[in-house]
TrEMBL record, chains A, B:
Start and end residues of each Acyl-CoA oxidase C-alpha1 domain: 334-498
Native source organism of the sequence: Delphinapterus leucas
All copies of domain Acyl-CoA oxidase C-terminal, residue ranges: 544-585
Residues of the active site: E483 (proton acceptor)
Pathway membership, UniProt: Lipid metabolism
MF-aspect GO terms: FAD binding; fatty acid binding; pristanoyl-CoA oxidase activity
The name this protein goes by in its record: Acyl-coenzyme A oxidase
GO biological process, one term: lipid homeostasis
SUPFAM superfamilies (UniProt xref): Acyl-CoA dehydrogenase C-terminal domain-like, Acyl-CoA dehydrogenase NM domain-like
Taxonomic classification: Eukaryota, Metazoa, Chordata, Craniata, Vertebrata
Amino acid sequence: MSRGRAVNACCVRWAVRGLASRRAWRIPKVAGAMAPLGEGSDDPVLPDLPRGPLHAARARASFPWKELALFWEGPDMLRFKKNIFSALENDPLFAHPPGSLSLEKYRELTFLRCKRVFEYDFLRVEDLLGSPLRVLALIQCLGMYDWSLATKFFLHTLTFGSAIYSSGSERHFKYLPKIFTMEIFGCFALTEVSHGSNTKAMRTTAHYDPTTEELIIHSPDFEAAKFWVGNLGKTATHAVVFAQLYTPGGQCHGLHPFVVQIRDPKTLLPMPGVMVGDIGRKLGQNGLDNGFAMFHKVRIPRQDLLNRSGDITPEGTYVTHVKDARQHFSESLGSLSSGRVAIAGMSVVNLKLAVSIALRFSATRRQFGPTDEEEVPVLEYPMQQWRLLPYLAAAYALDHFSKSLFLDLVELQQGLLGKDRSARQAELGREIHALASAGKPLASWTAQRGIQECREACGGHGYLAMNRLGDLRDDNDPNCTYEGDNSVLLQQTSNYLLGLLVRRDQGGARIESPLKTVDFLEAYPNLLGHRFEGSSPEDCLDSSVPLAAYEWLVCYLLRESYQKLNQEKQSGSNDFEARNNCQTSRLVKP
Amino acid sequence: MSRGRAVNACCVRWAVRGLASRRAWRIPKVAGAMAPLGEGSDDPVLPDLPRGPLHAARARASFPWKELALFWEGPDMLRFKKNIFSALENDPLFAHPPGSLSLEKYRELTFLRCKRVFEYDFLRVEDLLGSPLRVLALIQCLGMYDWSLATKFFLHTLTFGSAIYSSGSERHFKYLPKIFTMEIFGCFALTEVSHGSNTKAMRTTAHYDPTTEELIIHSPDFEAAKFWVGNLGKTATHAVVFAQLYTPGGQCHGLHPFVVQIRDPKTLLPMPGVMVGDIGRKLGQNGLDNGFAMFHKVRIPRQDLLNRSGDITPEGTYVTHVKDARQHFSESLGSLSSGRVAIAGMSVVNLKLAVSIALRFSATRRQFGPTDEEEVPVLEYPMQQWRLLPYLAAAYALDHFSKSLFLDLVELQQGLLGKDRSARQAELGREIHALASAGKPLASWTAQRGIQECREACGGHGYLAMNRLGDLRDDNDPNCTYEGDNSVLLQQTSNYLLGLLVRRDQGGARIESPLKTVDFLEAYPNLLGHRFEGSSPEDCLDSSVPLAAYEWLVCYLLRESYQKLNQEKQSGSNDFEARNNCQTSRLVKP
C-alpha cells in the first residue's frame, strides 16, 4: 500500500544518501589487520569453521572470510567480542533453558545475568571514554545473546548512569560507584501514561519546600503515572524522574530530572509514598521489567535535583545559566540523542542475526529442481536471492553507518563535557541530532522488514520459535517506537533540513555542517536540473550514480515539502497546522 | 527496500484489479435490510453503543453505522454472529485467564474449548452446504476470539472432514458422524520435514501387501517425518496421511491420501509403530498443537485408501479413472484450494481487528496541539489518517473479495460433487485456483503490514501484550506461509496468466473465463496504448480510473514477464531455469 510523507521520506532519503557518500565510508584503522590468515590457521579468535552442511556453500566464496572479518572489525575488537561470547557460552547461568520461562522467572533470570555481567567486568569504567566503540560492542554482544539482558544492563549503566553524570554535578557523583557495583539499580523515568512523544506536557510535579529544603515529587493522577520505564517493574532502587519544577510562589520552571529512591535496596520493598509495579507482558523483551510508578508527595533532598542546567538555592530561588525555557528543556533532554544512535546499532544487530539465520537455512534447504530427482538449495533461486541479499548489503551499510555516527556522537559528548560552547559544537549537536533522528528510523524499519522477509523466506520452519526469527522481530519492534516514535522523529530531521533552506533564503547563510552531510544542498535548487544520463546497467554500478540520484531526490522532496509548507502558511494556517498538513504525500517510506 | 518480481507483482495487481472491478462488487441480497434503525432502538442484535471516551468521535460520523452493518452483513448473518459471540462471552471456559498460560495449559484449554464449540452446535451439518457463508462466519467469529481455537476446529471439521468426504467414497462415510461428535479427532498430514512446497517430492510410502490386504505406511527417515501438522502434536486420533502408493512389483502411483489411526481415542496413547509428538513453541497460535509423526511399517486396511481418484483391487491392481499422474496429483490435492480462500478471509479478520483497535486508540489518545494547553486526538493528524485509513478501506474491500471468492468456490465444489466434467467446470477450477493463489498473498500481506502499521501507530502502548496487536501479528503470520508460501503461490497464478497468452498466441484461443476476471486481457497488447488522461485529482475519484490503471499495469507486467520468459527460452534455458530467471524484476510487492 502506497503511503508516506514527503518530509519524512525526504529525511530518510537524506540518511540513505549519507550511507552512500564517501564521508560515511571512512575506513576504520586496522593497521596490520590485513595480513592473510590461511584456512589452516588455528587462531583462537578466528578458528576455522567446522565442516557441516554449510561447507559446500562456504567453499564457493569468492573472498577469504577471515580477511573480511579482520578488515571490518579489526583484531582488537574481534578479540574483545570473542572474550564476551566465550564467557557467556561457558557460564551455566547463560544456558538457554529448555522450553519457555514464565514471565516472573524470565525477569528474575535476566536480573541475575545482568549482575553477572558486572562481575565479568568486560569493560572497565576507564574504558568507557577510552575505547568508545567497545561500549557499543558490549551492548551488541549482550543483545546477540538476549536483548532483555542488554537493555537491562544498558538502561542501568548508560541511561541512568549517564543521566546522573551528564545532567548532575559533583554532588551526584557519589551515585556512580554504587552503579558500577550494582549496590543501587537504576532506571530513567520520563514517559507517563498519557504522554510519550510530547515530553513537555509531562505532569509529574516537584514543588520546593524551603522550610525543610526538600522537593516534593507528586503524581497528580493516574494519567501522570510514570509508565513503560525499563527496570522499574521489579528491580530498580533508584530512578531519574522528570518532573515540572515549581518554586515557592508557584512559578513553574519546566521539566527537570531528579534522583528519586524507589525501593529499599535490601528488600526491594517500595519506599513510602511510591506506588510501583510491573506493566505486564509485552510483545517482546519480556526479560526486562518495564514498570509504572506514582508518587504521593514523596520528599527528596534539594540536592537530588540534577542541577547541570538549573538549580535551587536553599531559600528557593531558581538559578540557571540557560537563557530560556526552550534551551533549558533541550539541555535536560540532551542525553536522549545517544539513545537513538544506540538503537540504530541495536537494529543492525537484529538484521545481521536474521539475515545470517535465513541465508544459512537457504543454503541447506533444498526444494524443487530441474528434474524430479535433483533438488536445488533454495538460495540458488533468483527469487530467494532477491529477497535476502539486499538485506545482507543493508546490514553491512548500516553497521558502518551506526558505528560512524556513534563516533561522531562521542566527539560531541567530549565537547559537551569540556564545556565547549563554540558555534561549531552547537552546529555539530544539531547535525547529529538530525542524523540520529533519521538514522534510527532507517535502521529500525529496515531491520523490521528484513526480519519479516527472513521469517517468510524460511517458510514454515521460520515460524518455529526455536529458530529465533520471532524473538528477533519482537525484540526489534520497540526500536521503531522508543526514544521517539519513528514517524515523529523524522519530523525533527525535516525541521532541521527545512530550517537550513529558511536560513539561506532569509539570511543568505551558506548551507554547510561540521560533518558535511548537508553541504551538497548548497547546490539546491540547481541540482534539480541534473538529469540521469546512464544508458546501461553498468553505468549504475559506480556508487556515484545512486549517490547523485539520492541527492536529486532529497532536493526534490525538500522542494515539494518547502513549497507545501509555504502554501499552507500563506493560506492562513498557523505553524502547527501547516506542519501537520505537509507531513503526508504520495511518497513512500524507505 | 525495493524488491519484487514482475510475474508475481503482475499476479497481485491482477487480484487488486479484481477488487476494483464491478464483478467483485455484487451487492449481497439484503432485502428489507435497509430499513433505518434509530439510535434509540433497543434491537438486541445491534444495541446502541455505550457512551464512553469514543462517543465524541462516533457522534461525528457522517452515516448511520447500523445501516452500514445491516447493508454489509444482512440481518440473518448479524444474528448468527451475535449468537456465537454471546455464547462465548457467557461461558467461563472462554474467559481470558489473567496472566499468560504455559504452552501445555494453553493447548489443553484450546482442546476443551474446541469440544465445547461442538456442543454449542452453532452450525448444523446440514447448514454446511445450505448456508455456505455461515461456515466462513463461524470460523471467523472463533478466530476473532482466538485463532488457535478457530484453526483447531477448522482443521478437524473442514480440512480433515472434507478430505475424507471429498477424497474418499461411501466406504469412508462411517468416519463422518464420529467427526461431528468428536469421537475421533483429525488432522491433515501432508508436509514433511524436508518438503513443504514441493509436495510431489514427499517421501512417506504406502506399500500394498495382497496377502493381508493391507497397506504399509512407512517413513524412510527423519526427513520424511510428517511435520507442522496442526492437531497432531497432542490430540489427533486420526490423520489423513499423504504417501507415495506402491503396488506389488514396486510400481509407484504417486501421492495418495490414507486414513491412518494415530492414537487410541480413549487414552491418547500412540498406536503401535507411530512415533508422534509436539513440535514445540511457535511464533503464534500456540494453543494449536502442531506435531510430527514417523510411521514404522504401520499396517492399515486396504479400505483406508481414500479412493476417489485411484484404488487398489484386493489382488493389488491399481485402478483409476484419471488419465495420467499429473491429473491424479492435482485431483488428490484439489482440496487445498479451499484452504487458500479461507486464509484470505482469516487475514481480513486480523486486519479488521487491528484497524479497529488502532482507530479507537487514536480517537482517544491526545498528544501535542496548537497550544501547550490544548492537545489533539492523534487521529486528527493527517499523518495518522494516512497511516491507518488505507488499511480500513482495504479491510472493507478484502472482506467483500474474500466472501465473493468463497461463494465462487462453493459453486465449484458443488459441480465437483455433482461430477460435472464440463469444460466450463474445468475452466472455473483453474480460474478460482489462480484467484485464490493471488488472493491469499494479497490478503495475508496486507494484513501483515496493516497490523504492523497499527502497532506502530499506537506508539509504546501498542507494544503492550494486552492490546492484542502482537497476538494478531503473530497469529496472522502463518497466513503468509501455510497452504503455500505466498511467493510460491504467486507463481501458480503467473503460470495461469502466462498460459492464457500462450494459448492465444499459439492456438488463437479467446481470453475469457467463467468469472470474467481475465476477459479484459483480450484487449492485450492494444490496451498498453491507453494513456492516463486525468488532469485533476477529481478525475481519479471515479473508480473506473484506478481500474483502468490496474488493467494497464497487469498488461505491462505480463508483457515484460512474457518477453523475459521467451528470451530465456530462446537463449537455451530449460523451462525450470527460464521460469526462475524471470521471477525477479524491478517491480515491488503490493
